[in-house]
């Protein structure tokens, strides 16, 4: 409830009395407050009525008025008066009034008029305009604007910019008071927190702060500790008042390295929901993840306290993944530590029946589809060892850790710039391209004559300012002053090249494919009239069991996998699979339907069962890599559905998959 004009005047009268060390006549105060002496006496009576025994306003004939009491008693009553009259009136000094306005703009999302502020703070509109000018000066050059119109004054900007600007403002208040003593600085920080944030928010951040700092990958400096503390206060309170981050339309997860902190962000979001009733959206959690990562807060655990069995399981997991991907992850100590930390808490959580939701699940399944499915197969042993059941969300968190490790193993791109002779021209092009592409590339320049005398088999991308006769790979031609249009062509080719070099992409050399190896005509069933997912799964199970390819547990495993998460894709295909332990022999089976049926959240007309037995597990990478070349393109799926002859279907698959 805002302080009304009378209460605001009484508060200001009390502040004036606190400043005086001797008696002052009533007209001294009435002149300053522009009211009658009768009003002053009425206000004195009001204040004396709510004062305790250790403070009072003494009225002395022919002398005037004096506030009696110790300095501490006067300050204590001031706080009591603040609580009685209004939450807005911490002080009437211009600096603290500006802080209050910033708090109301940024942390309460208020839209206020000068008339309203004038009544709240009992100051002139001209004084308030000066306050707003000071705030506007701080915002100059930043991406948050102060908007004033007939509706009032408010802030406008992207959520990330609003939070960043507010953090800088609070830090400017902290830095204005240079304190070397860490304890005193923390005390000042807490006083600032009390001024700006709701008590419930402060209490929550206090609960999680210590644990987060302990997860840092290195000892944090005092600045970093202050930074994460203030950042969290701002983040949580902005959510508390209903401010969310803008939804971004993106094809790829922007930086998978940030995702190492993602699980911590998800856990924090669950705590906010439980403690504060907040419901975080996908983009809110993504920002929190990047915030934690920026402060080096990642999954971690004291290795001395970890069950030795967990370490052994993780080592086996990394070894198997290395073998399957044909890339050595065994010496990646960071991967080992984050997996041990993650799986230790994951196992404990699942034993208690606690599940976590990953808002980025569908993005991870789409962007890292092959790796996601490989991780799922690898985790069969973990499920059996600990008697737990993982779902797609658990698999997606593990996929993130492996993807980070894999991306560190992607070889450098070798880029060659060809120029006729001129050194100046080659330097111009070199510098333009070097600054435009990531620093992890090897970029060299070469003359036209040297170009024809060198072995270029190891070169990934050729850029030339002169015509060259070279047919082994496309050449991008540029002018000496590389244009923006030419840079777009370079970036496009660079992105395609980088994706093609990813470990989980199939190699572009034609040979007998793994799909050919495990898919035969007898396992192709076209134009079946099934109407439910259950009918299809029962059909697969019966066919496989009759042929002796699976154990008695196969059907149950198939249904359990479906219960764990989505196996259908938006392209109209489902890819059910079961635990490798329930297969006696690897096989792939395809069923097309006469009509689409509901399979999870998608309607499908093509079902491809992938069955990889334990003895063939090392070939699973190529199986999924080939498969996803087909099923991620709706045109391919539609064509497969239209085929009526098994031989034609096998021929189409053979012609459109490479390993």
TrEMBL record:
Entry annotated with the keyword Transferase: yes
GO-annotated molecular function: protein-N(PI)-phosphohistidine-sugar phosphotransferase activity
Residues annotated as domain PTS EIIA type-2: 517-656
Coiled coil: none
Chain ranges of the PTS EIIB type-2 domain: 413-502
Keywords: Activator, Repeat, Transcription, Transcription regulation, Transferase
Keyword Cell membrane set for record: no
Pfam families, alphabetized: HTH_11, Mga, PRD, PTS_EIIA_2
Gene Ontology terms: biological process: phosphoenolpyruvate-dependent sugar phosphotransferase system; regulation of DNA-templated transcription
Top-level taxonomic group: Bacteria
Domain PRD: 305-412
Protein name per UniProt: Transcriptional antiterminator
């Amino acid at each position: 409830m805002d302080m009304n004009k009378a209460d605001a005047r009484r508060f200001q009268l009390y502040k004036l009395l606190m400043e005086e060390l001797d008696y002052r006549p009533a007209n001294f105060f009435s002149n300053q407050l522009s009211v009658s002496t009768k009003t002053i006496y009425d206000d004195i009576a009001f204040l004396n009525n709510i004062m305790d025994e250790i403070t009072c306003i003494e009225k002395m004939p022919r002398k005037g008025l004096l506030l009696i009491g110790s300095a501490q008693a006067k300050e204590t009553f001031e706080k009591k008066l603040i609580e009685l009259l209004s939450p807005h009136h911490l002080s009437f000094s211009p600096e603290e009034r500006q802080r209050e306005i910033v708090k109301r703009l940024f942390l309460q999302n208020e839209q206020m008029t000068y008339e309203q502020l004038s009544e709240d703070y009992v100051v002139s509109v001209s004084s308030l305009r000066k306050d707003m000018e000071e705030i506007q000066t701080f915002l100059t050059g930043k991406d948050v604007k102060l908007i004033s119109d007939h509706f009032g004054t408010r802030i406008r900007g992207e959520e990330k910019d609003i939070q960043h600007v507010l953090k800088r403002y609070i830090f400017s208040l902290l830095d204005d008071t240079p304190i070397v003593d860490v304890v005193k600085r923390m005390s000042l920080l807490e006083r600032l927190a009390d001024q700006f944030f709701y008590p419930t928010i402060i209490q929550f951040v206090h609960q999680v702060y210590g644990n987060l700092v302990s997860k840092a990958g290195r000892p944090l400096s005092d600045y970093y500790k202050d930074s994460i503390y203030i950042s969290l206060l701002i983040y949580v309170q902005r959510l508390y008042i209903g401010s969310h981050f803008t939804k971004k339309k993106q094809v790829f997860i922007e930086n998978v390295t940030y995702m190492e902190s993602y699980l911590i962000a998800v856990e924090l979001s669950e705590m906010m929901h439980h403690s504060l009733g907040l419901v975080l959206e996908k983009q809110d959690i993504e920002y929190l993840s990047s915030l934690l990562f920026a402060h080096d807060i990642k999954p971690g655990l004291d290795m001395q306290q970890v069950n030795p069995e967990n370490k052994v399981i993780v080592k086996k997991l990394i070894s198997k993944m290395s073998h399957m991907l044909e890339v050595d992850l065994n010496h990646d100590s960071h991967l080992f530590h984050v997996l041990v930390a993650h799986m230790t808490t994951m196992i404990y959580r699942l034993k208690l029946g606690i599940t976590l939701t990953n808002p980025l699940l569908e993005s991870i399944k789409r962007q890292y589809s092959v790796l996601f499915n490989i991780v799922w197969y690898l985790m069969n042993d973990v499920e059996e060892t600990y008697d737990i059941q993982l779902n797609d969300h658990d698999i997606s968190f593990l996929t993130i850790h492996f993807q980070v490790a894999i991306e560190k193993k992607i070889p450098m791109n070798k880029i060659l710039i060809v120029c006729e002779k001129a050194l100046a021209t080659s330097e111009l092009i070199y510098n333009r391209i070097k600054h435009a592409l990531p620093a992890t590339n090897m970029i060299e320049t070469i003359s036209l004559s040297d170009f024809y005398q060198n072995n270029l088999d190891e070169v990934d991308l050729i850029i030339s300012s002169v015509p060259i006769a070279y047919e082994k790979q496309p050449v991008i031609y540029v002018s000496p002053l590389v244009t923006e249009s030419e840079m777009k062509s370079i970036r496009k080719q660079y992105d395609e090249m980088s994706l093609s070099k990813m470990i989980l992409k199939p190699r572009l050399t034609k040979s007998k494919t793994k799909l050919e190896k495990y898919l035969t005509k007898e396992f192709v069933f076209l134009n079946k009239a099934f109407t439910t997912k259950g009918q299809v799964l029962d059909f697969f199970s019966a066919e496989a069991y009759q042929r002796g390819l699976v154990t008695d547990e196969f059907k149950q495993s198939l249904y359990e996998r479906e219960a764990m998460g989505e196996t259908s894709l938006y392209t109209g295909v489902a890819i059910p699979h079961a635990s490798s332990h329930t297969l006696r022999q690897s096989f792939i089976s395809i069923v097309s339907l006469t009509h689409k049926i509901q399979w999870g959240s998608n309607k499908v007309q093509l079902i491809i069962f992938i069955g990889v037995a334990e003895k063939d597990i090392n070939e699973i990478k190529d199986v999924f890599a080939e498969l996803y070349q087909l099923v991620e393109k709706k045109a391919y799926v539609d064509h497969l559905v239209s085929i009526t002859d098994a031989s034609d279907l096998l021929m189409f698959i053979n012609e459109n998959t490479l390993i």
